[in-house]
Write a structure and sequence with these properties.
Length: about 90
């Protein structure tokens, strides 16, 4: 048993290092083959993200008043500027 453990450990370590380099090489291949900026539609980002909670049943942004929660240790200076008080 004492000779079996180092063999299994070495084999597992070798396998994991090989897999790690294989994954890293995939990333290197992608960055090396892309010489132009990301103009593909696959890589385009939206300017903003709309959370699903803000949409009504028909998919439009809701106009109803939103509930907000403030915690007692919140040190937001904008409240002091507006003259609001916290509980």
């Amino acid at each position: 048993m004492t000779i079996l453990f180092p063999i299994i450990y070495s084999a597992a370590l070798t396998y994991l290092v090989w897999k790690a380099f294989k994954v890293m090489s995939n990333g290197w291949n992608i960055s090396g083959s892309e010489k132009k900026p990301f103009n593909n539609s696959k890589f385009k980002q939206k300017k903003y993200t709309i959370h699903p909670e803000l949409l009504d049943k028909s998919g439009n942004i809701t106009e109803e008043e939103l509930l907000t929660v403030r915690f007692s240790n919140d040190n937001d200076s904008s409240l002091e500027e507006k003259g609001s008080t916290t509980d």
